[in-house]
Amino acid sequence: MTTRAGFIALIGEPNAGKSTLTNRMVGAKVSIVTHKVQTTRARIRGVALEGDSQLIFVDTPGLFQPKRRLDRAMVAAAWGGAADADVIVLLIEAHRGVTEGVKRILDGLAELPQGRKIALAINKIDRVEVPTLLDLTKDLNDRFAFAKTFMISAEKGRGVDDLRHWLADELPEGPWLYPEDQIADLPMRMIAAEMTREKLTLRLHQELPYQLTVETENWEERPDGSARIDQVIYVARDGHKGIILGRKGETIKAISKASREELSEFLGRKVHLFLQVKVRSNWLEEAERYSEMGLDFTDGNA
Fold this sequence. Notes:
three-stranded mixed beta sheet, 9 helices, 9 strands, 23% strand, small ribosomal subunit rRNA binding, Small_GTP-bd
């Protein structure tokens, strides 16, 4: 039996559906998915099996025009994930077409070293008519020589099996890199922090979600099989702390409940979750915070 294994980078603009596709491929929730853009910060690897192939998905942050240190570190992480991958899949939103951001990504792809397969996946195909889809496919393939084009709906699963089968055949021959039952290479502490950050992002509005980060400070295995998880939510200003706590602590209680329930389901056992909110006005400039997010602090330099 010939086995295959390799890394697949999913790249695209923010909100193109990269996290949704990762979770669909893996069959479990390993990447934060919200209606807000720029929610994925670190390169989250989800591991899926297809026949004799092990597919390791690198779900990169969305590619956009960076303005802050955190933005620059996220964009550097995205391109780093693409450069290290065996196969790259560019996700394009069907209804948005060839935006200025997509043009910049195509330019970036042209600068990558030769030798790896780059596929195009046009996502959210249910949002446009077939003629529009065909015109977009031709336009994109005229701009870049993609190895293969797929039309998919990551949310509904349409076309995803075809993409997964193709990817499985394109990976290099070699032994599997992870145990058969492993679905992600992130430490559980980081996955737990991402789940809580997702609940914060869904609950809160405007710029606040991008001004906070969550860290798992303590993880205690209890004799009864349950786990106690202590997490800290870092915010930049006192006013942000009040927003997260909410009136009489209602907001933080709702966030804690939602995160605890999802963590319990994910881990298959009872979870005791305790959240604290701390103000650190300069956390966006602290190297330690970037390490916790899986980002390189120096990549944020101008």
